[in-house]
Structures are given as structure tokens and as C-alpha cells.
Design goal:
Elements: H1 9-20, H2 23-30, H3 34-48, E1 53-56, E2 59-62, H4 64-84, E3 97-102, H5 105-122, E4 126-131, H6 141-146, E5 150-154, E6 163-169, E7 171-176, H7 188-193, E8 195-199, H8 206-213, E9 219-224, H9 230-234, E10 240-244, H10 245-251, E11 257-260, E12 269-274, H11 283-304
Parallel strand pairs: 3-4, 3-5, 8-9
Antiparallel strand pairs: 1-2, 5-12, 6-12, 7-10, 7-11
Helix pairs in contact: 1-2, 1-3, 1-4, 2-3, 5-11
Length: 309
């Protein structure tokens, strides 16, 4: 495929046509007349050798190829938009733009809140949008990173993309304040016999994979899609939960739970900001990465001070 022979404006038209499934509405959306949008559809049909939109009764439906192109076109549009939004210079004090970061509720609670505070103080025109990672984040990381500004994720889950380290965290366990059979510490036997509540993708964490090497198979009773729900699912029950220490200390006062150390040397968590190589030399993205790294260093400094937890 020779891209130099293609009109990239057709990407805009294709996306509008596939999403609106109506020539007139698609034209209104992108500022083209109905005849101009019809001409764009004709060119797209010739290129793909497919109708893309097929009339069924009084409306249009996507063909099989049109359905395939629907998601691909959205991804391509986002990549092109980010590519051509790249800047040689960036002044955080005067710029106005939005950064989209994919992050779990854990990462937003312990890191995103502090990042948002710093951005608010230093770059009042900058907006941050945090979205939850999809369940396919490990299987299709490239597509996810191509449509966002960054992914907050620990090392050991994703790889092969540029990243900057942010901060370190430890793994701890939560048990109910009134747990009938756990006192001041957990044993490996407790981990095997007690029911668990887990985050939906906890199995991706090296600390959980480590349990398998120790011969412990967690008996999962409840699974949730939010780390912040773990204390509520533990309080008043016999369940246990593996959770990041920074989040555990933050949430423990809100639920009747205790924080206990693991009965094994759990692999620490190293949180990082991952990005697509297309952003590497973009001035705005460089500022975002440097700001995130600075916030991460500040978190480490606070934790290392005497008396800090």
C-alpha cells in the first residue's frame, strides 16, 4: 500500500460514514455537503472494493468489511490526531489541552490525585482524563497505547514499550478487624484455606504469580473490578485480600479491616508510565512524563522520611 497516493482526509469521512451510517448526517458532522460526502463514499467504495454501507429497507447497515473497519478507523483517526497535534515547544502555563491516561482506580487514588494537584498548580489550562484499563490491556497493549497518552501499570504486566518509573509500592493483606481465626499474622496455610476477594486482573501481578511457585492456589470467592472495593468486601467476613500497601493505608480507616504483612517475601510493585513511541519526542508529552516522574520521586521522598508510612 502506497500511502503517498492516499487522501488522508478520507479517514475523517470514513469514520463519520461508518459511525453515522447516513451520508447526510456524516456530511453535517465533518462540514461537507451531501454531494461531497457521497463522492467521498464512492471513492472509499472503489478503494476497498466493497459497498461499506448497504441499504436495508429505509436505512443503511454496515457490510461485514464496514463492521471490521469501524474500530480500525477510530483507532487510526486517534493516532493521526495525536500525531499532528505534536508540538516542538510546550508552555504548560499557557497551553490548553487534555491528556488521556489509562489507569486503575488504585493508580488514580495513590498517584493520579497528586499528579492532578501538581498539574492544577502549574498548568491551569491542562486537563487530565483517567479511564479504566480494558481487560484486553495485556493482549493488545499496542492498540491501547496508540489511542491514549499513557498507561499507568506496574512492570511485569506489560513490556516492549518506552516507560518512565514513578514509584514503588509493597503488597499487603487485608483481613476483617474481627476475623475469627487470624490474629497478628498470616501463615501460608491461611492463604490456602481462607476465601479470597480479588481484583479482576490480580493474576497479572508478579506477587500473585509468585503464590503459585509457593504452592498456594487462592480460593477466590469474590472478584471485583475496583481495588477500592476490596476493604468493603473483606470487612465482617472470613475473606482475605491482597492489596497495594499505599492504597491499604489510605482505605483502612474507612472499613473495619486490618493490614497484615504477607507470610512470604512478596515481589514489590514498581509503577511506571508507559507510552507509544509516537509520543517520545513530542514537547507536550515530554512535559507530562517529566511531571509524572517528579511526582513519583516526591512520593518516594515522603515515604522515606522518618515517621512516614
Amino acid at each position: 500500500m502506497n500511502l503517498s497516493r492516499l487522501d488522508l482526509n478520507l479517514v475523517v469521512a470514513l469514520r463519520a460514514l461508518l459511525e453515522e451510517r447516513n451520508v447526510t448526517r456524516a456530511g453535517q458532522r465533518v462540514g461537507l455537503s451531501q454531494p461531497a460526502m457521497s463522492a467521498a463514499l464512492a471513492r472509499l467504495r472503489r478503494h476497498f472494493d466493497d459497498d461499506l454501507l448497504a441499504r436495508v429497507g429505509g436505512h443503511y447497515e454496515l457490510t461485514a468489511l464496514g463492521q471490521v473497519l469501524l474500530d480500525r478507523t477510530s483507532t487510526a483517526y486517534d493516532v493521526l490526531e495525536r500525531l499532528f497535534a505534536s508540538q516542538a515547544d510546550f508552555d504548560p502555563g499557557s497551553e490548553s489541552r487534555e491528556f488521556k491516561l489509562v489507569a486503575s482506580d488504585y493508580a488514580v487514588a495513590v498517584f493520579g490525585t497528586e499528579l492532578a494537584r501538581v498539574v492544577h498548580e502549574e498548568a491551569p489550562g491542562i486537563r487530565l482524563r483517567f479511564t479504566q484499563p480494558p481487560t484486553t490491556v495485556v493482549d493488545d497493549t499496542a492498540t491501547l497505547l496508540s489511542t491514549t497518552d499513557g498507561l499507568l501499570m506496574p512492570h511485569g504486566v506489560v513490556s516492549d514499550f518506552p516507560a518512565t518509573d514513578l514509584y514503588q509500592d509493597s503488597w499487603v493483606f487485608l483481613v476483617s478487624d474481627d476475623h475469627p481465626s487470624v490474629e497478628d499474622h498470616l501463615t501460608r496455610q491461611d492463604l490456602a484455606r481462607l476465601p479470597w476477594v480479588t481484583y479482576q486482573r490480580t493474576y497479572d501481578a508478579p506477587a500473585v504469580r509468585q503464590l503459585g511457585m509457593l504452592g498456594v492456589e487462592p480460593r477466590v470467592e469474590v472478584s471485583v473490578d475496583s481495588f477500592q472495593l476490596l476493604p468493603l468486601m473483606v470487612a465482617g467476613t472470613r475473606r482475605i485480600a491482597l492489596i497495594q500497601e499505599r492504597l491499604a493505608r489510605l482505605l483502612a480507616p474507612l472499613a473495619a479491616v486490618r493490614v497484615l504483612e504477607p507470610p512470604y517475601e512478596a515481589v514489590p510493585l514498581q509503577e511506571a508510565l508507559w507510552w507509544h513511541p509516537v509520543h517520545t519526542h513530542d514537547a507536550a508529552h515530554i512535559w507530562l512524563r517529566e511531571t509524572a516522574a517528579r511526582v513519583g520521586r516526591r512520593m518516594a521522598d515522603v515515604r522515606e522520611r522518618p515517621g512516614s508510612s
